[in-house]
Design goal:
Length: about 210
């Protein structure tokens, strides 16, 4: 995988995977889906000895976004999300924080578009819009490192739930087939919950696809 090192931290009440995408050559990192435990994640960043560059949100649900603002302020870095996810971030019903008895509002500093290409922390990243779990859900594909961070769109032999308001099973399956199943077989998939997988494994064994 070259210069990319991925650290996984399971955080919050629904066991969300937060990832650090670390460039050991530049000593920089990206924080992906910090859903909880901001203080502990900040300590992990410092222990890694790398400079955080940005926070990438795959979508706006509370279990992926709650710690983002605190970490953004701590390290003075921007938060990225897909342009169609602004409403989800800012609505406690859509971001599901009401399920925990809270009414939280989240934000992003940079709103990205489908197929937009980013260069952050020495990585070239392609944004893949995968609506269905939420309207503005997206994945972050690192083509040169052959990894994709899929949030709650694609799981190991499963897909994200679509019973939230504005969710759509047909949209999600279509997006996964068009955006993710066209990636190389050997692409490693880092999902928002549960186990790491590969595109090849999902093509062969995912019953939804």
């Amino acid at each position: 995988m070259g210069k990319l090192k991925v650290n996984q931290y399971v955080v919050g009440p629904v066991q969300t995977n937060c990832y650090f995408a670390i460039n050991d050559e530049l000593k920089e990192l990206l924080i992906i889906d910090p859903g909880a435990s901001a203080r502990q994640l900040a300590e992990r960043v410092r222990a890694e000895g790398c400079r955080p560059v940005a926070i990438l949100l795959t979508h706006g649900h509370f279990d992926h976004a709650t710690a983002a603002e605190e970490l953004a302020k701590e390290f003075d870095i921007p938060i990225y999300a897909h342009e169609d996810e602004k409403e989800t971030l800012e609505d406690s019903e859509l971001n599901a924080s009401w399920m925990m008895g809270d009414h939280l509002i989240f934000h992003a500093d940079v709103f990205v578009k489908d197929e937009e290409e980013l260069d952050l922390a020495g990585f070239h990243i392609r944004v893949l819009h995968t609506p269905g779990h939420t309207v503005g859900g997206c994945c972050y594909y690192f083509p040169y490192e052959e990894v994709v961070f899929s949030g709650d769109s694609l799981f190991c032999t499963s897909i994200g739930r679509t019973d939230f308001k504005k969710g759509s099973t047909s949209d999600l399956i279509r997006a996964i087939k068009e955006k993710l199943m066209t990636l190389p077989d050997r692409t490693t998939v880092y999902p928002g919950h549960n186990d790491v997988t590969t595109i090849e494994n999902e093509r062969m064994y995912n019953p939804y696809l």
